[in-house]
Amino acid sequence: MTSPSEYEYEYAEVIRQTPAEVTPELIRNMWALFALAHQARGHQAPIIERDLAYGPDARHRLDVHTSRALQGPASVLVFVQGGGFVAGDKHTPGMPYYDHIGRWAVDRGIVGVTVNYRLAPDHTFPAGAEDVAAAVDWVRTNIAAHGGDPRRIVLAGHSAGAAHIAGYLAGHGGAKPDVAAAAFLSGIYDLREAEKNELLSAYFGSDPSAYTAREALPSLRTCGIPLLAAVAELDPPLFQAQAEAVQDAASVFVRVGGHNHISEIVSLGVDDGPLGQPLLRFIEQHTARSAA
Fold first, then answer.
1. What are the CA-CA distances from residue 273 to residues 104, 255, 269, 280 (Å)?
2. What is the C-alpha to C-alpha distance for residues 151 and 149, in angstroms, rounded to an integer?
3. DSSP code for 258
4. Over the range 113-149, which residues count as b (16 or more CB within 10 Å of their CB) and which as e?
5. What count of other Cβ atoms lies within 10 Å of the Cβ of residue 32?
6. Does residue 4 have a pLDDT over 50?
7. 88's torsion region: left (phi>0), alpha (psi -120 to 50) or beta?
8. Which H or E run includes 281?
9. Are 138 and 148 in contact (CB under 8 A)?
């Protein structure tokens, strides 16, 4: 794993010199910046069972990341990636993303699950929350066969994935939330205050009068599930404002120093101090409590 000094030399200045706006160029640059480090250390878990169906749609697929060395039944991390509601995939051939999340989990004694979901504009609110609910139901039913403990599931989502997890916890997925804890990484929770743009409208609709019923924030404050909320230090103002809005609902708040919206998640397992360490402490705390 890269040491802090190596990280500072190799990555920090590059990230700080990159504009905060989330663009295809930023995504490509950040993916490339961390890819060699992931590939050098090994970015895949020893065992990956791919494209297991958790529902009828072609996008209702998940990957389970595990190892015969895990001491089961192990805690389970279910990760939902971002993509602006209209894109994103749990596995990109030839790149570490997001297999590196499964490897990060397995290296820490946790079963990893990475999830695809239906995309806007063909599938709009509440499709994402419904898909998270269906994926959680699949995990609760099947994860014991993969060495995981269905009582010790932690959800984590980045960007649009965090918004979908928030929708699930708010009850928009049509099922009562049933997980040990959840982590939101630079997501959208307060629709009325969110910047109105094409990506937001593609999923939540273009009529702001509908946003009050569709936003997750009020329900997050009363859902009764331990929450970690994180935002990257170099995130755009949209995500900074959303993090401030959700902060009072979270039991743990993390400002991911030295990172932008994309490097925050693609650096996990390479630069673990800003996000990986507090995330692991949060998982261990609440899965231990759940098991007890």
1. 13, 11, 9, 10
2. 5
3. T
4. bbbbbbbbeebbbbbbbbbbbbbbebbbebbeebbbb
5. 11
6. no
7. left
8. helix 276-291
9. no
Instruction: Say if residue 53 is exposed, middle or buried (CB neighbours under 10 Å; 0-12, 13-18, 19+).
Output: exposed
- Residue tagged active-site, from 159, 186, 263, 267: 159
Q: Is 79 in contact with 153 (CB distance < 8 Å)?
A: no
State which H helix or E strand residue 72 sits in: none
Describe the strand order of the beta sheet including 252-256 as a list of residue ranges: 47-53, 61-66, 111-115, 74-80, 148-158, 181-185, 227-232, 252-256
- Residue 5: pLDDT over 60: no
Given 3-state DSSP classes, what are the helix, strand and coil percentages for the chain, each rounded to the nearest 5?
Answer: 40, 20, 40
Q: What is the pLDDT of residues 62-72, one digit of tens each?
A: 999 999 999 87
Distances in whole angstroms, Cα of residue 111 to Cα of each of 40, 49, 187, 236:
22, 12, 24, 32
What residue type is assigned to position 191 of the chain? L
**Strand ranges for 69-210 from DSSP E:** 74-80, 111-115, 148-158, 181-185
Predicted local distance difference test score (pLDDT) of residue 193: 85
Mean pLDDT of all residues in the chain? Answer: 94
Q: Cβ(290)–Cβ(180) under 8 Å?
A: yes
**What count of other Cβ atoms lies within 10 Å of the Cβ of residue 227?**
25
Mean pLDDT of the region 256-277: 96
Note if 201 is an active site residue. Answer: no
Task: In whole angstroms, give the CA distance from residue 149 to residue 113.
Answer: 12
Residue 46, preceding bond cis, omega within 30 degrees?
no
Give the type of residue at 83: G
| Calpha distance 183→197 (Å, rounded) | 25
